[in-house]
Amino acid sequence: MNKKLTVKQIAAWIGIIILVGMYLVLLVAAILGKPGTQNIFFACVGATIAIPIILWIFLWAYSAITGKHNIASLDAMESDKLHDKDGNIIPEGQIKTVIFDIGNVLVNFEWKAFIKSHGGYDDEMSARIGKASVENHSAWDEFDLGNKDLKEIVDGFVAADPEIEKEIRSTFTDLEGIVTKRDEAIPWIKAVKAAGYKVLVLSNYSSFALEPNGDAMGFLDYVDGGILSYRDHVIKPDPAIYKLLMSRYDLKPEECVFIDDTEKNIVAAKKLGIHGIIYKNYQQVVADLHELGVNY
C-alpha cells in the first residue's frame, strides 16, 4: 500500500517541479536561441531564491494553524533534540506526561478569605463556618463529586452546625472568588509543553467553583486535557480516578508524574506506579521535576 504523503513532502515536490520546469524552459530557450533567454535566466534565479522562502512561510503558517511543529517552526536552540514526525520534541527521560492538581498548585484556594468577604464575619465566626463546610470533608466532597445541587450541599453544612444556618447559607450562595489566579500557571504549562511533555490536570473540582472563576481558571485553555472530578463523579484519592485518567489518555503510569499539594493523593498515585511530587512551592516542584529528568 502506498504511503500517504505529508504536507511537507507535498510542498517539497511542488517546489521541485516548479524549479525543474523553469530550468527546462531555460535550457530549451538557450538551445533554440530564443529571444528573452536572459530574462528567463533571471526569473529562474529569482524563483530559486523565492520558492524555498515561500515554502518556508507556508510550513510556518501551517504549523501555527494546526499546532503541529515542522522544520519551519522549530526553535533553533532545540534543533539538536529528538522530534516526532510532526516536529514535536520527544522528551529524553522516562517521564512523558506531567499531571497537575489545581487547587493550591495552579490556583490559590482562598477559602478563608472567601468566607470573610462573603459575610464580613470576625475570625471566630469565619472559623466556625469553615469547620462546618470546607473542613467538614465528607460534606465538602459532595461539591467535587458533582452528584448534588448547591442547596443539597449547603444543607449538609447546616446539619453540621444548625445554630449558624443563616450565616452558612448567606456565605455559600455561590463560590465566586474561592480560588484566585496564580501568575505562573500559564507560563509554567507552556514551558512544560514546549519541552515536549503532555500536560494534564487531575483535580477534585466542582462546577460551582469552575463557572464563576473563569479568569483564575484560564490555564485550562492550555492543557492537553484531564479530569475534573465533578464530571466523572469520582474523587481523589480513590484509585478509580487515576485509573480513569490512565485509560482515557492511554498513559503508562511509570511515564507520568503527578503534582498535588495533598500527601494522601500522592500516596494513592504512587501505589499505582505513578511518580508523585507533593507541592510545597513552585521552586521546589521545579527542582523535583528536574531530578526526575523533566527538563524545560
Q: What does this entry look like structurally?
A:
This protein is α/β, with parallel strands linked by helices and 296 residues long. The chain folds into three domains: 7-76; 97-107 and 181-291, Rossmann fold (3-Layer(aba) Sandwich); 111-171, no CATH class. 50% of the residues lie in helices and 9% in strands. It has a five-stranded parallel sheet with strand order 5-4-1-6-7, with helices on both faces. It has a two-stranded antiparallel ribbon with strand order 2-3. Helix 12 links the parallel strand 6 and strand 7 (275-278). It is elongated, with a radius of gyration of 28 Å.
CATH superfamily of the largest domain: HAD superfamily/HAD-like
Total strands: the figure is 7
CATH class of the largest domain: Alpha Beta
Main beta sheet strand tally, sense and closure: 5 strands, parallel
Features:
single chain, 296 residues, 3 domains, five-stranded parallel β-sheet, two-stranded antiparallel sheet, 13 helices, elongated
Chart the SSEs and their pairings:
Blueprint: H1 7-32, H2 37-66, E1 97-100, E2 107-109, H3 111-119, H4 123-132, H5 137-145, H6 150-160, H7 165-171, E3 179-181, H8 185-194, E4 198-203, H9 207-210, E5 226-228, H10 229-232, H11 239-248, E6 256-260, H12 263-271, E7 275-278, H13 282-291
